[in-house]
Amino acid sequence: MSGISHPNVDRAQQGSSAMLRLARTTLAASPALAWTAIALLVLSLPALMLPLFDERLFQGVSVWLKPWKFLVSIGTYLLTLAVVFAWLPQTSHPSLAKRYVVWASVVSGLFEIGYISWQAAWGQGSHFNFSSPSTILMYSLMGVGAVTLTSTSLVQGVMVLRSPAFALPPALQQGIGWGLVLTFALGTGFGAYLSASPSGHWVGGQPSDAAGLAVVQWARDGGDLRVAHFFGIHAVHFIALFAWGVVVLARRANVPGLSGQTRQWVWAFCAAYTAFCLWTFLQAVGGQPFLA
To answer: Crossing angle for the helix pair 170-196 and 226-233, nearest 10 degrees?
Structure first.
């Protein structure tokens, strides 16, 4: 009996082996992206602990909340780009497009994190800070950095969609590729409107994050432009997750015709997701909270 393996154990071992192979491939495919992402995510842990020692508030919440959120967000973004390179064929790796994706995202991401953390250390805001010529200049440079950062998802998305030898099934290739493109289109579009808003991210309600939703601090008494921006920036994650679910369902469930329509389902979800993001944007512009 001891020599009989259990199917669940075998699947768990196979899953662990696959994750280890992906981790090694990711580090090999883009060391700069992978290690920068890991460093940011590791740094997010002490940043999460800083409010225990520093009780200063900004806009009703800890001065260290924004650096923590950006460490997690940009770290996850860079790690996503690194993992996608692990699935692209090696022939695309020496390309100018890859070098742009790697170094534009690393440099602009570190710039954003650095300035946000610096301002937090002084108890000041990084966004919508027009208190001096230097803060106005830095806010403008942050806008350039943010567009540069999100533009890397557009470049990589085109690489994925045009790749003739992507390592994943076609539905996942479409989901990841279009998810990256929509991350740029939606994230940048909503971000541009947000950055130009004279009232910051609030539309109606109190200009404070103190009573906002847990973790994200989205306003509950008025509109919040950060909602649409969040869903836009993370389009690649939501769409790729849906594509993965469709592929798994097509393989395991006996659903007539599903296997041949997985890409169509992914395209339909891309359209529905875009509509959802536009709805959250219009909701915020109308002064309505995402979740009251």
So the answer is: 150
Under DSSP, the state recorded for 4 is P
Buried b (16+ CB within 10 A) or exposed e, 145-180: bbbbbbbbbbbbbebbeebeebebbebbbbbbbbbb
Half-sphere exposure of 10 (CA within 13 A, CB side): 5
H/E run at residue 47: helix 31-49
Find tokens 């790729």 and name the residue: 240
Please state, in angstroms and rounded to a whole number, the distance separating the CA atoms of residues 251 and 258.
Answer: 9
Hunting for tokens 């994050």 — which residue is that?
209
What are the strands, taking DSSP E only, across 41-190?
Answer: 57-58, 61-62
- pTM exceeds cut of 0.90: yes
Write the pLDDT tens digit of every residue in 182-205. Answer: 999 999 999 999 999 988 899 988
